[in-house]
Amino acid sequence: MKHSALHTASYDASSLELDLDALRKQFPILTRTMRGKRFSYLDNGATSLKPEAVIAAESRYYTELSANIHRGVYEFSEQATVEYDGAREKVARFIGADRNGSVIFTKSTTESVNVVAYGWVRKYLGPGDELVTTEIEHHANLIPWQEACKAVGARLRFIPVNPDGSLQLESLEDVIGERTKLVAITAMSNVTGYMPDLERIIGLAHARGARVLVDGAQYVSHHPINVAELGCDFLVFSGHKMCGPTGIGVLYGKNDVLEAMDPLIYGGDMVSKVKRDEASYKPVPDKFEGGTPNIAGAIALGAAVDFLAEVGMQRILEHERSLLEYLVERASRVDELVSYGPDDLSVRGGIFSFNYGDVHPHDAGALLDQEGVAVRTGFHCAQPLMKVFGVTGTVRASVYLYNTTDDIDALIDGLARIKDVFG
Ligand SMILES: Cc1ncc(COP(=O)(O)O)c(C=O)c1O
């Protein structure tokens, strides 16, 4: 595996500066142009770019091992098993899991939420019970709860939201009560970057006897996290947003909760004994990983967390903070730009959603594409939050470790071009 440029970058442990030149060389796609212009990738909220080390890890599995896990008695299968289980340990370390919790591989955040919705909510909630969530969630952390609550007759409740997309935490005590069984909340909004005070929410939920699921799809890739300290019962996230491949996601859960849950997928590899009319299942995590898993994806996710850990999550966080400040400052000087999210940047990650005059977000995105700038446009799988803002969509720019102020400049300069076209 070649990641020489990263190794030659001198990471002084006391410095929070990223060596951007060396870092950017790790991402082969950054050598490409888009529409003949410098490629400014500002769609990291949708998915991240992949470093050479991750691409190499995925490819190496297919070129050197290509064997199924947990089944073979031959060398390559044993090695694939060791690497797959090793990736699980790397991910567990990366999120600070202790021996009271386990990492289960799924295909995505969406699947991880569904595992809990089917295996826990539908099993343990009934009429009179309540599941608390918010209107700032990605649909992946809303629709599975809507359906599960409908199926069992439980009530879905919402922590009230402010007009800027932050939550009214002063209302927490009114919403999270004795009937609350689960609080499902994002750690970072994919529309505004807003990060609710999770410690406060988890503290109250636990005091009321409720479990807490944290949607870390946006957060885990950008912030250091320690689930053992945070105390959440579940954490869900996706590999593809954190320099890893698509098709691999994580469900972290506390062991006692996972043991008491039913799997979503039944079949091979998750069973301990099968008779004609019934079967018993392996312990956690295997019971949740029926069928041949995404072995290459898991191994490559292991490489992704190695990569992120080596760069340093605190360093990534500081870099993105300075990019967000720069973006907000430059955007504040653009007439007719309306942005969404709390003014207090200390509660926000590197996401900036906006509209420009009455230009439709898709038109703005298409013109930015002509300038080599990749942004996301639309309702961002968060229609209830769009309703709060009174819009049908926004343009979203989201940064990651390899972005520079040049990318932000390209975005802001691109807006001038939109002005030329739309007047
Ligand atoms: C906050 C949040 N939750 C959940 C998801 C769903 O992730 P995936 O599509 O990888 O399942 C996303 C994806 O954008 C997200 O931003």
Give the neighbour order of strands across the main sheet.
Answer: 4-10-9-8-7-5-6
Counted by DSSP, the helix tally is 15
How many separate domains?
Answer: 2
Percentage of residues assigned to helices: 25-40%
Percent in strands: 15-25%
Query: Mind summarizing the main beta sheet?
Result: 7 strands, mixed
State the CATH topology of the largest domain. Aspartate Aminotransferase, domain 2
Tell me the radius of gyration: 22 Å
Number of strands: 17
Spell out the CATH superfamily of the largest domain.
Type I PLP-dependent aspartate aminotransferase-like (Major domain)
CATH class membership of the largest domain: Alpha Beta
Low-pLDDT runs of 5+ residues are 1-11
SSE-based structural type:
alpha/beta
Features of the shown structure:
423 residues; alpha/beta; Aspartate Aminotransferase, domain 1; Aspartate Aminotransferase, domain 2; 39% helix; globular; binds pyridoxal-5'-phosphate
Explain this structure to me?
- The chain has 423 residues and is an alpha/beta fold.
- The protein has 2 domains: 19-51 and 312-422, Alpha-Beta Complex (Aspartate Aminotransferase, domain 1), CATH 3.90.1150; 56-309, Aspartate Aminotransferase, domain 2.
- It is 39% helix and 17% strand.
- It contains 15 helices and 17 strands.
- α6 links the parallel β5 (130-134) and β6 (155-159).
- α3 runs antiparallel to α11.
- The radius of gyration is 22 Å and the shape is globular.
- It starts with a helix and ends with a helix.
- The chain binds pyridoxal-5'-phosphate.
- Pyridoxal-5'-phosphate (PLP) is lined by residues 108-110, 138, 140-141, 186, 190, 215, 217-218, 238.
- Pyridoxal-5'-phosphate binds next to α5.
